[in-house]
Design a protein that fits this description.
Layout lengths: L1 H24 L8 H5 L1 H10 L1 E7 L8 E7 L2 E8 L2 E4 L2 E4 L1 H13 L7 E3 L8 E4 L5 E2 H6 L8 H21 L9 E3 L5 E3 L37 H9 L2 H8 L5 H25 L1 H4 L2
Antiparallel strand pairs: 1-2, 2-3, 3-7, 4-5, 6-7, 8-9, 9-10
Helix pairs in contact: 6-9
Length: about 280
C-alpha cells in the first residue's frame, strides 16, 4: 500500500509540475502552437510563391477582401488578399498595415497574427494573409450566446489574450478591433486579423491610447491591459526607431514609427501606474 501511495503521489507531483509549466508559459508565447511558429518562414514562402488557382469574394468586410486558393505541388492552402488604400467609409485604410502588424507581432513575440506577405494579384500590390481555420469569431459568440470557458486553463488564457490584444491594439492604434476580427479556435486560442485601419499618426492617437485606464473608447469606461507577460513588456520597453524600421521596412513611414514609440511610452507609464494600483503580481506574469 505504501508503494502504491508513493507511486500515486509521485505521479500526481509530475502531473502538477507539467500543468504548472503549461499554465505558466503557454499563454505567454501567444496563440500559435510552437510547431506552427517554427514553420512560419515556410508559410511565408508558400504565400509568396505558390500558384494562385482560384479566388472569390470573401463576402464580408468593407475592404472587399478576396479569398485566394493557393497550390504548390500537392499542398493547397487558402489566404486572404486585400489591396484597400485611402479613405473608405470615412476611415483611412491601408493594405500595407496588415504586413506591418504581422511583422511587429513577430518582433514582440505575440504570435497571434497569421503569416502575412506582400503579393501582386491581377497587377496590383496587396497583402496576402494565411487563412486560419477557426471555430468562431466573437460576433458569432455574442449572436448565438455561445458559452465561453468559465474555469481552467482555457478561461485563464482567454482572459490574458484579451488583455494582450488590447495592449497590441493600443500600441498600433488599431481603430477596428471589431467582434469579427477576433477569431477563436476549437481549443479556445485567440487569433487576431484585419489591421488595415491601424498605425494612426495624428496627435489624437499619440497622446491617447485606444485601450487602458483612460481609453479613447470611453463608452465602456476603463479597459485596462492589466495582465501581461513580462517578456512582452520587456520587449515593449526595448523598442527603438531602428528596431521597428528594420522590422517593418517601407511599410510604415517615419512619422508612423515615431507614433508607435509615443504610444509605447504612454503604455509603459500606464503599466507602471497599474503596478502601483494593483501590485506587480496582478499586472505581470
Amino acid at each position: 500500500m505504501n508503494l502504491l501511495k508513493k507511486s500515486f503521489y509521485r505521479s500526481l507531483t509530475i502531473t502538477a509540475f507539467f500543468l504548472a509549466v503549461y499554465f505558466l508559459f503557454w499563454p505567454s508565447y501567444g496563440q500559435f502552437r510552437p510547431e506552427e511558429i517554427l514553420e512560419r518562414e515556410d508559410l511565408e514562402d508558400f504565400l509568396l510563391t505558390a500558384k494562385i488557382v482560384g479566388f472569390k469574394d470573401l463576402g464580408k468586410g468593407i475592404t472587399q477582401p478576396l479569398k485566394i486558393n493557393l497550390r504548390r505541388g500537392k499542398t493547397e492552402r487558402k489566404a486572404v488578399w486585400k489591396n484597400c488604400s485611402g479613405v473608405i467609409n470615412g476611415y483611412f485604410e491601408g493594405w500595407q498595415y496588415e504586413i506591418a502588424a504581422y511583422r511587429l507581432d513577430k518582433l514582440l513575440g505575440l504570435n497571434m497574427i497569421p503569416p502575412t506577405v506582400e503579393r501582386r494579384f491581377q497587377g496590383q500590390r496587396g497583402s496576402l494573409q494565411l487563412w486560419v481555420e477557426h471555430k468562431y469569431d466573437l460576433l458569432e459568440i455574442v449572436d448565438h450566446s455561445i458559452p465561453l470557458p468559465k474555469e481552467g486553463l482555457e478561461a485563464v488564457n482567454l482572459e490574458r489574450m484579451q488583455y494582450l490584444a488590447r495592449a497590441f491594439d493600443s500600441l498600433i492604434a488599431n481603430e477596428d478591433r471589431s467582434l469579427q476580427n477576433t477569431l477563436l479556435t476549437e481549443d479556445w486560442r485567440t487569433i487576431l486579423i484585419d489591421h488595415s485601419r491601424s498605425f494612426r499618426s495624428d496627435a489624437h492617437f499619440t497622446r491617447n491610447l485606444i485601450y487602458g485606464l483612460r481609453p479613447l473608447r470611453t463608452e465602456s469606461g476603463p479597459l485596462p491591459f492589466k495582465r501581461l507577460p513580462r517578456t512582452f513588456v520587456d520587449k515593449l520597453r526595448s523598442l527603438s526607431f531602428d528596431s521597428i524600421k528594420v522590422t517593418v521596412g517601407s511599410y510604415l513611414t517615419t512619422r508612423e514609427i515615431r507614433s508607435i514609440l509615443a504610444r509605447r511610452d504612454l503604455m509603459i507609464k500606464e503599466i507602471e501606474e497599474m503596478i502601483v494600483l494593483y501590485g506587480e503580481g496582478e499586472v505581470l506574469y
